Amino acid sequence: MTQVRTVRATVEYDGAGFQGFQRQRSSRTVQGVLETAVRAATGDDETVAGAGRTDSGVHALGQVIAFRTQSRLDDGTLLRALNAHLPADVAIRDLATAAPGFDPRRDATVRVYEYRIEQRPVRPVLDRTRAWHVGKTLDLARMRSAAAVMVGSHDFDAFTAGAQVSTRREVFALEVWREASTILIRIAANAFLYRMVRRIVTTLVRAGRCEIDAADVTALLTPAARSQIRGTAPAHGLTLLRVEYPNVESRYNRQRMTQAVRS
Amino acid sequence: MTQVRTVRATVEYDGAGFQGFQRQRSSRTVQGVLETAVRAATGDDETVAGAGRTDSGVHALGQVIAFRTQSRLDDGTLLRALNAHLPADVAIRDLATAAPGFDPRRDATVRVYEYRIEQRPVRPVLDRTRAWHVGKTLDLARMRSAAAVMVGSHDFDAFTAGAQVSTRREVFALEVWREASTILIRIAANAFLYRMVRRIVTTLVRAGRCEIDAADVTALLTPAARSQIRGTAPAHGLTLLRVEYPNVESRYNRQRMTQAVRS
Hints:
The structure is a homodimer. Helices cover about 25% and strands about 30% of the residues of chain A. Chain A contains 6 helices and 10 strands; from the N terminus they run E-H-E-E-H-E-E-E-H-E-E-E-H-H-E-H. In chain A, helix 3 packs parallel to helix 5. The radius of gyration of chain A is 20 Å and the shape is globular. The mean pLDDT of chain A is about 90. The interface of A and B includes residues 61 and 125 of A.
């Protein structure tokens, strides 16, 4: 009997060369390139599911994917085989057999993104595909005050472009700090609405320019907020850092223990 | 009467798209691109001199250049005009009128380079043009012991590929540290021989792999060293961070003061 298992992997990619994560008929996408590599390495024609559908230009250091396979290659060999079939701008960082039915999007409980801003008079060169260039000096204390308001469970309707059933999300952490000429913004939430991270960044930058203050942000977070965030920070400053699955690990371990007891 | 002045500028570039700094007839070089921009912005057909002739693939955050110009544009306007004529992979970071006769190579007293190593099992993606991928774990303590031996004034003949009149150079500092999966090596010296930084990196990596120890490095630094360093660390891990001119500043200020007293 052919054994089918679910494989879970962590993926790094440079968003510059992709029209986003999600497969499209005539564009180069991360999902498309990964499915081609899975086919080449295993012979399986399977869908590769991702934790988040990152937009065109958005990078990832820790996107999580899953796919089903009949391959008998052990995890280490499968990782090397996939990387041998992947182009230079995407790589599998680690890979393991997952609990049957593991769904990287539905099972995720925490997503962490980082946004990079280069704040200097002249355009950056070495970080030009990794950071948003902002010429004006940003007031970090004001950015932090605005950020503090967004932490917690709020209605982020004003921060999205799409139409969602529920627009309530819980932001666990939102940190802003500086390293030389780089301003780093790191945000963790249970989930994000379409364009939500980049519109939070726009809001923080407007706060840093003293165009809005924490009270304005509070007003935007009410369900009856009449205005929408204008402007979306550029995609190339954004990186999906990691996705967390605390419950899945324990569920898988429970299953394995149950199987061990039964066998 | 047309006034000719010497302009000094700090330049950032991504080495990936250049066949090194030095002008060549049929290759894209940093010097060639800069001279084209100077011509376009000022009309002057002048040589752009650089502090260091970085190799093909080597990056710079703080290369220093100088050129003569008859342009009456003030420094800020000239900076913006040059950047408007430069491609995305090179930019002028700052610019000022220099002492007449300022020579960025001859007048430099300190050069600082940084080398980045990504030490992890799988090849890096986002830093693939900025860091050397080393799969094996490196022993940082051993790298530091080897580095300590190289600090000071030594004969670096075993560390160069070219033929130089004198192969004695003074290394002011050589630091090795880790940030997550990145190992950073920073080296400051009065000057460097051809390929010297990259062969020092090769030596440190060999020490980190326990192939050689500090005593072997000491032997390599003697004038009678019979062996040469085998292997040169890849160019794309190397970045020219900055060049220092402590005496030039004071010389220029003295000149200006003398002129002010005279006028």
